[in-house]
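Long-time lurker, finally posting.

We've been working with Shikimate kinase (Acidithiobacillus ferrianus) and I want a structural starting point before designing mutants. I don't trust myself to interpret raw outputs, so I'm hoping someone here can both generate the structure tokens and explain anything notable. Sequence follows.
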Amino acid sequence: MTGSIILIGPMGSGKSTIGRLLAARLRLPYVDSDALIVAHTGVDIPTIFEIEGESGFRERESKIIADLASRREPIVLATGGGAVLDPVNRGHLRGMGRVIYLEVSTGEQLKRIRHDRNRPLLQNTDLDARLKTLAEQRNALYQETAHWRVLGDGLRSDQVLRRILRHL
Ligand code: S3P
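Top reply, 14 upvotes:
Generated this for you. Predicted structure of Shikimate kinase:
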């Protein structure tokens, strides 16, 4: 196991916010796999989904994760909510260091991302039902991939951060 910290969990679980705080505290580089995809393509995530479909986005996501896993220097990595769908990604993420599952209920997710426009999987749909379906499909994968999990419901980011720091 190398020394990176990898945050996984559903949309709205706070991976980017907590990742940034954690990286600053630990003086490690912060990396966001979605942001890398956007930087490489030069377009936003909804546009990638529009042009290449979800499968095109997943290919890009897997390539970025494989590339990050091949590097030596420790980082704090915030992943996209679907990064755990690919079993190869799951192996890469676990191999990079400590994988933390930021767990939140769908009720908490709803509060945080009700008016989101940047997540294609949540557009033009019954948000509550969609979040529940995604949770049914993915929660076991988050569990299986993570070394440990932190429950984020009702907590501010600084409180989640403190819980993580206590465990490290
Ligand atoms: C996705 C989550 C998003 C982004 C893309 C797909 C997903 O990242 O990767 O819209 O499948 O759950 P966040 O979890 O950071 O919102």
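Before you design anything, note these points.
The two ends are 14 Å apart (CA to CA).
Residues 11, 15, 34, 45, 80-82, 119-121 surround shikimate-3-phosphate (CB under 6 Å).
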